[in-house]
Each structure stands twice: as structure tokens, then as C-alpha cells.
Amino acid sequence: MSVRVERLSKQFAGAVAVSDASFAAPSGAITTLLGPSGSGKTTLLRLIAGLEVPDEGSVFLDGHECTGVPVQKRGVGFVFQGHALFEHLSVRENVAFGLRVRRFPAREIGERVDELLELVQLRDHGRRQPAQLSGGQRQRVAFARALATRPRVLLLDEPFGSLDARVRIELRAWLRRLHDKTQLTTVLVTHDQEEALELSQHVVVLHAGRVEQSGSPLEIYDHPASRFVASFVGEANVLHGHIRDGRASVGPHTLSAPAGVREGATVHAFVRPHDVQIAHARGVGPPLAGAVVEDLSRVGGSVKIALRLDSGERLAIRMAKGGFDGLRLARGDRVQVELKGAKVFVEEGIGT
Predict the structure, then answer these.
(1) Phi-psi region of 219 (alpha: psi -120 to 50; beta: other; left: phi over 0)
(2) Is CATH 3.30.70.270 correct for 237-346?
(3) Pick from 29, 33, 146, 27: nearest CA to 85
(4) pLDDT band at residue 285 under the 50/70/90 scheme
(5) Are 141 and 171 in contact (CB under 8 A)?
(6) DSSP state of 155
(7) CA distance 300 to 281
(8) What is the assigned CATH class of domain 3-231?
(9) Every domain of the chain and the residues it spans
């Protein structure tokens, strides 16, 4: 079941929530709507669900327009951040709720609930009340309830947002296994980049209600289409320079520049911390040379290095402990720096 939105727009009291948004969520994949707070993620999800009516644009499910179709006829399941379980009902009764409302036969309901509790690894918890469960278990009950009526699309709005970091990581792995079993087309809303990049086959990056870029996690991370995507997705250093003779001049480093950019235009080069290579200054100098090690800190199996370039700008590097040990660096050492995979954008927003 594919999901496609075309030129969706929505305002609330004159404030733009979604503006001319278009993307396609592939069938059988997890598509993540990723962006900061206020970027339009939840509104876009609610427009897909039918919980909101767009001012303009269309929603298609499996190629059929459903913009005017009521929410209960769209065949979608929901899981929200706050669980929304019925506290007075048992786990089994919560999972069965949607089936009972639709008047399924009692035997079919029992079989479906058994199947789902097995699927979400809560087979022995059916008689418990929600208050007797952990946060992660409660959220798995919410997933089972959403899956009970066999939805064609699963919509998840920050489903792990209220859980602590350890439980979030555990549930991310659990959700990936669940999806591998069900192959259900899923649209996930999150502002957590790691969550998006780990879980998704497709990512839609939103900013100020607009789609900045959509594509695979690797495309989004390695080939950002705009300054916003480059700065928002993953860590990035930002170095500043200008166009000289059709190239981007960033300190002594010359980089490829977008075609047709005027001479002297201001550029911003985005470089990932792990895409910076360094060597002691006594070695053969790579293109961008001249920096001083200002700080070193060990973070698990990697080392963060803070450099101050001769230009005065600062550069953060992250490297594996093994590579760092071989360099034998200390604070105050001078190093030579080489940039790898820098993405250059001009100040007006035209990028590579």
C-alpha cells in the first residue's frame, strides 16, 4: 500500500502548518517524516489519516485519491506518543476494542488478540491492567491495538517520545523486527535523527511546513539538497568562504561550487566530523593546512577533537580510538587538515 501526497497545504488561524508538500511513501517501507518542532510533521500525518482536511492538495492511498474519505474508511492504524490505552480495560480488552466496535465474531476476536499478543511479545500479560505494565510494554500494547483491524497503513506520531533513552533504543529494534514480519507500509513522525536513519527506508525532511528533501537515509545524509538538510541531519562543521574564479575558496582549500554562481558570492561548506582527516604538521601538507588542537575528549570508542584553524574558525572531528592512538596527539599540537566530502551551498540557498 503506497502513500502519496500532492501539494498539500494547511493553515490554522492564518498560520502556515504545511505548505505545498509533496512526497511518495513506498509500499511496504517505513517512511519517516523528520524535522524540528513546528516543521509540520504531525499536521502532515493527520492530513494523511483524514483527521485534518487540507486547504489545498490531495492524498492518495494505493493510487486512489482519498482526500475526502472519512478517517474510519481509510484503513489506517494509529500509535501516538501517549499510549492512549483504556486504563479500566485489561491488555486483552484494549487490543480487542476496535474489533468489538466493528462487531467481529467473538471467536475471531479471541484468535486475533492471541496472535497480536504473541507478535508484540506480551502473550502472558493479557489479563494485566495498563498500570501494571512498563512504559515500553504499554507502547507495545498500543501497537497491537493499532494492528488489530488489519490496517493498510500504520501511522506513528512520536511513538517513543515519552520513553527514556534505553527503552527507546530497545523499542526501535523491536519495531524494526515487527516491520520485517508484517511488511506494513508505515509513516513515522520523529524529530530524532538517529531514530529516522536507523528505522527508515525512506526519509522526508521537513522545515517550516515544506518538504526540503526526500530520499533514502544514505541520500539524505551523504547528499543533502539544501543548507538546512546539511545542518539538521547529522553533525556538521560549517566553514565560510567565497566564490573565486568559479570555485569555492574556503581558507586555502578550493572546492567545487554550484554552477552559475556569481563571483564573490558567500558560500558555506558543510563537513561531517568523520570526514575530516588530520596529520601532524611535519608531514606532507594536504590542501587545507594550519590548525591547532584545542581540546580532546574520549566518547566511548571514539575521540572528539576540537581544532582552531589559522583562519580563526573552529572544526570538530570525530575518529575511532584506534586511529587517534596512532597519531599521538596532544592539546596544543599543530596539525594539517584535509576535508573530505564537503558540501557547498551559496548564501542564497543554491547548492551542489
Answers:
(1) alpha
(2) no
(3) 146
(4) very low
(5) no
(6) E
(7) 27
(8) alpha beta
(9) 3-231, 237-346
Which grid cell is 60? 492518495
How many Å is the Cα radius of gyration of the chain?
25
Name the residue among 176, 177, 159 with its Cα closest to residue 168.
159
Instruction: For residue 177, count other CB atoms closer than 10 A to its CB.
Output: 11
Residue 154 · residue 144 · CB < 8 Å: no
Grid coordinates representing 246?
568559479
Q: Are 352 and 343 in contact (CB under 8 A)?
A: yes
123's grid cell: 502473550
The model carries a pTM of: 0.86
CB count in 10 Å sphere of residue 292: 15
DSSP for 78-112, please give it.
EEETT----TTS-HHHHHHHHHHHTT--HHHHHHH
Residue 239 in grid coordinates? 566553514
Among 127, 148, 131, 116, smallest CA distance to 86 is for 131
Residue-wise pLDDT tens digits, 165-186? 888 888 899 999 999 999 999 9
Band the pLDDT of 282: cuts 50, 70, 90.
low
Instruction: Name the one residue in this structure whose C-alpha cell is 575518529.
Output: 319
The whole-number pLDDT of residue 351 equals 42
Mean pLDDT of the chain: 90
For the chain, give the number of residues. 352
Amino acid at 242: H
Report whether 335 contacts 293 (CB < 8 A).
yes
> What does the DSSP assignment read for 233-267?
SS--EEEEEEEETTEEEETTEEE---TTPPTT-EE
- Residue 18, beta-bridge partner list: 10
DSSP 5: E
Alpha helices, H only, 148-256: 165-182, 193-199, 217-222, 227-232
User: Measured between alpha carbons, how far is 79 from 81 in angstroms, rounded to an integer?
Assistant: 7
Q: For residue 193, what is its C-alpha cell?
A: 535523527
Bridge partner list, 295 = 306
